[in-house]
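does this look right to u?? NAP version
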Amino acid sequence: MVLETLDVTDSAGIGALALKYRGKPVDLLLLNAAQGPTPQTAVLSLAKIDFTTAGDSFAVNAIGPMQVTQAFYDSVAASGRKLIVAISSDSGSLEASVKKPILYNYKASKAALNMYMHTLSFETPRKGITLVMLHPGTVKTNPGLMRIPGALETPDAVGRIVALIDKLTPADNGRFMDNRGETMPW
Ligand SMILES: NC(=O)c1ccc[n+]([C@@H]2O[C@H](COP(=O)([O-])OP(=O)(O)OC[C@H]3O[C@@H](n4cnc5c(N)ncnc54)[C@H](OP(=O)(O)O)[C@@H]3O)[C@@H](O)[C@H]2O)c1
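got this back:
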């Protein structure tokens, strides 16, 4: 196993890493990085939206994954599985996100990620690439999420996602799905 570090907002770093792996196949490009909500940013109202961090949300949650995808696209196309999985969120769904005036920056940036990937999904078939957007479920990755009833333990969520990714086929290209493979509403 090889581990690399990458800040998905660092264009030069993305380019350098992609160059290092140029010509090497990447079976699965899993875009997981995100700037999630914090207790300070989770509960908001219009008057309290912090626009000084809004740009960071979009940079990490939408633009970064798209730029990483652009940089590694040929490596994915050169692989056997040819998979791109963008870890999205129900927060990026108009229908499924919590119907409250909270998480403004997070919700908007995940919706932007979905639209970027949705648009790309009309191009991926040309290279035989399968692209999906995946809502992992509510997972206990921080103390706030641990208090949410029904939240999954991280190993459980990861197990579901790995099993789901194993079963992806080209027919799934462009889908937004949950961790059981059920279609999520946009
Ligand atoms: N947990 C949930 O209930 C839930 C629900 C729906 C969707 N999701 C999505 O699932 C994914 C994982 O969520 P999580 O709960 O594990 O989130 P998390 O605990 O906040 O972890 C986010 C990860 O993203 C990395 N990251 C942040 N900024 C980055 C950057 N600029 N460049 C590269 N990496 C960066 C962080 O690295 P560092 O630790 O080094 O900062 C961390 O490993 C995210 O896309 C999230 O939106 C989670």
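The chain has one domain: 27-177. idk if thats expected tbh
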